[in-house]
Amino acid sequence: MTEPTLFAALQALLGERHVQADEVGLPVLSDKHRQYHGRVQAIVHPASAEEVAGVVRLCAHHAAPVVVQGGNTGLMAGATPDGSGRSVLMLLDRMNRIRDVDTDNDTLTVEAGCILANVQAAARAAGRLFPLSLGAEGSCTLGGNLGTNAGGTGVLRYGNARELTLGLEVVTAEGEIWHGLRGLRKDNTGYDLRDLYIGSEGTLGIITAATVKLFPLPESRCTAFVAFASLPSAVAFLSHARNGFGASLTAFELLSAQCLTLLQEQFPEAVLPFGERSQPWYALIELSHPQAEDSARALFEAVLSSALESELIEDAVIAQSLAQSDAMWQLRENMSEAQARAGRNMKHDISLPVSRINEFVERTGALLQQHFPGVRNFTFGHLGDGNLHYNVAHPLDSTVAAHMANYAALSRLVHDSAHAHGGSISAEHGVGQRKRDLLGDYKSPVELDLMRRIKRALDPHNLLNPGKVLPLETP
Ligand SMILES: Cc1cc2nc3c(=O)[nH]c(=O)nc-3n(C[C@H](O)[C@H](O)[C@H](O)COP(=O)(O)OP(=O)(O)OC[C@H]3O[C@@H](n4cnc5c(N)ncnc54)[C@H](O)[C@@H]3O)c2cc1C
């Protein structure tokens, strides 16, 4: 009797409806920016960890790589299969159940295919906060957030996806299930497998469920836009705000004056907090307070007044209503769209020690003007986490195409500079395919070798999302 094909075996395992054939143009076969395109043997939709494990075992038997994809909002093309047509693309859209909410333990257990906004909503329905929050939350999944160790706007107070996770359920490259859904805040029983799988971008195992931490819902929220005469003032105000607000400071989003100008150009209807008055740097700050509005506002005003008196800040506008607060956040969230409307630019998701951010910005800006005169910086990001979105647009007297032709050289300059200032070339978006070949330049041989040894130990046949994260080895 002849052995069934992989496609037929997958259909027998999952049911015909849950196995799709490759079709040119399917959005799941391209990355978010439609720059990387893949071909596959099959697209599968398992409904349980057991089915995921069954798929992995079948794929291992047929030597077919498995690429797991969540909402496909990742920015590093990590969820896009290669063009060989050998891979099986696994979508976890049927694995979207909230399995358990434990309000005594302040934990929630959820399947990896659950959309992040739905995880937040489930926490809210239980009177709790799940604080992971990012622009793509309406379509990204918790599995993808964990795969990339996503950050977002709440890291300053609550940490990134790794710090929000207590336990995992993972399917290994051999098709076994690791039942690690522990809701423990203390567990020192050996190597931390959980932290290894988080951020491994589907290359070490497939996360099928997670137990995450919940927090009290804040009683009140205050938002303000603050203006600074210089970047060092913004950094100094960050310390001031941390001292004054303690754990209640939940956001500190930096924007340069160029960003606000771009927002005004691309969204003429948007109301800028300071109208025509301009300063070189701004921050959107937010306080999420355990007490009622009055006490939050009093604290907010006291900290801002003392910063004004000591000339750390030039001006501040405090949102007077939820609508005003939302409008301020809208400005920050519109930054991606404003850049897209203005034409493609070169994006750099980098992180630095906060104490070296000003030096980085000054030196890198000068180097850019020296080598690529006229380029325009749009710098914004999560200052409290040292995470800058250091984006560079074409000179006004040149074209996007001419600018993009310099991509490799310009990005190298930026990444070299971030590295020289003690920073990282990927703060929160991961490595995927896009930054894979850069790792060799910025990680030591020892570190890269350790990473390769971990990959070989957990995925000896290189079947899980091959060609991602680790630079390719020459045979
Ligand atoms: C508008 C916008 C705003 C964004 N803002 C932020 C931000 O503020 N902070 C931030 O950190 N990121 C941000 N991102 C990028 C971010 O990485 C993703 O939005 C999100 O975390 C990825 O989730 P996803 O479900 O779309 O994953 P995908 O794109 O589908 O996958 C991403 C990676 O994770 C792997 N993966 C997916 N599911 C699993 C799983 N179950 N097990 C193991 N690996 C898995 C994939 O193989 C791939 O390598 C933003 C993206 C967009 C489009």
Topology:
Blueprint: H1 6-14, E1 19-20, E2 40-44, H2 49-61, E3 66-69, E4 87-91, E5 98-102, E6 107-111, H3 116-125, E7 128-129, H4 142-147, H5 155-158, E8 165-171, E9 177-180, H6 193-197, E10 206-213, E11 215-216, E12 220-228, H7 231-245, E13 249-256, H8 257-266, E14 281-289, H9 293-309, E15 315-318, H10 322-333, H11 335-341, E16 349-351, H12 357-371, E17 376-382, E18 387-393, H13 400-404, H14 407-420, H15 439-442, H16 445-458
Parallel strand pairs: 2-4, 3-4
Antiparallel strand pairs: 1-2, 5-6, 6-10, 7-11, 8-9, 8-10, 12-14, 12-15, 13-14, 13-17, 16-18, 17-18
Helix pairs in contact: 1-2, 7-9, 8-11, 12-14
The structure holds flavin-adenine dinucleotide.
Q: Could you give a short description of this structure?
A:
34% of the residues lie in helices and 20% in strands.
Q: What coarse outline follows from CA principal-axis ratios? A: globular
Across the major sheet, the strand order is 15-12-14-13-17-18-16
Q: Number of helix segments?
A: 16
Radius of gyration: 23 Å
Low-confidence stretches: none
Q: What's the CATH architecture name of the largest domain? A: 2-Layer Sandwich
From the N-terminal CA to the C-terminal CA, the straight-line distance is: 37 Å
